[in-house]
Amino acid sequence: MLNIVLFGPPGAGKGTQATKIIEKYQLVHLSTGDILRAELAAKTALGQEAKKYMDKGELVPDKVVIDMIGLKIDKNHDASGFIFDGFPRTTAQAEALDILLNKKRAPISIMLSLEVEKEELIKRLLGRGKVSGRSDDRDVSVIENRIRVYNNETAPVKGFYEKQGKYRAVDGMGTIEEIFERLCKVIDQVRN
Ligand code: ADP
């Protein structure tokens, strides 16, 4: 199995690149942000609970997202691999993911970390906010809080995968195609 963690701050382009990667490598895309927004739209109890955190740019509690991802992994038992997007976002989530994947004897193959400058992130998120209808992309203070939470709680996840020899930094500046090519180059190295 090819299991990829696509990592990077809000606005780094994870969703855009994930869409291209799943098409090329036939992987199942698991985006916790997308799953949470779907729960919200369906007005489930989980969605209502998550909204409180998402609106402020805070992280949804680990247990909620870990259980949610566990269910999705089980549901896709015939997948040839997964791309995790927006997850893990804390070291506790990374540890839980290892346990879930070890049960399937299919560990994470690689963590691809998109590196983008802060000014560019804010520009991209505000641009998305104008068209996506995502309220968390419209408010600069919520965006800045998401970047702060990323630096404090999520950036340490790099170290978790670095220790396992799986961390790869990829330049996330440039055109969508240029970045996609850089990502494919690294993926092809681990596949062969
Ligand atoms: P971004 O574009 O900021 O990376 P996402 O679409 O991945 O955002 O997620 C939107 C919001 O959903 C986050 O700000 C957070 O509140 C919540 N969320 C998504 N994934 C997780 C996670 N793995 N752990 C905790 N909260 C999460």
Write a structural description.
The chain has 192 residues and is an alpha/beta fold. It has a single domain (2-191), classed as Rossmann fold. The protein is 58% helix and 12% strand. The chain has helices at 14-25, 32-41, 45-54, 62-75, 91-103, 118-132, 140-154, 157-163, 176-191, and strands spanning 4-7, 28-31, 82-85, 110-115, 167-171. Strands 2-3-1-4-5 form a 5-stranded parallel beta sheet, with helices on both faces. Helix 1 (14-25) crosses helix 9 and helix 2 (32-41) crosses helix 3. The longest helix is centred in the last third of the chain and has 16 residues, at 176-191. Residues 10, 32-33, 36, 53-54, 57-60, 65, 86-87, 89, 93, 146 line the site of adenosine-5'-diphosphate. The site of adenosine-5'-diphosphate (ADP) has 16 residues, from helix 2 and helix 3.
Features of this protein?
58% helix; 5-stranded parallel β-sheet; alpha/beta
How would you briefly describe this protein structure?
With 192 residues, this protein is of the alpha/beta class. 58% of the residues lie in helices and 12% in strands.
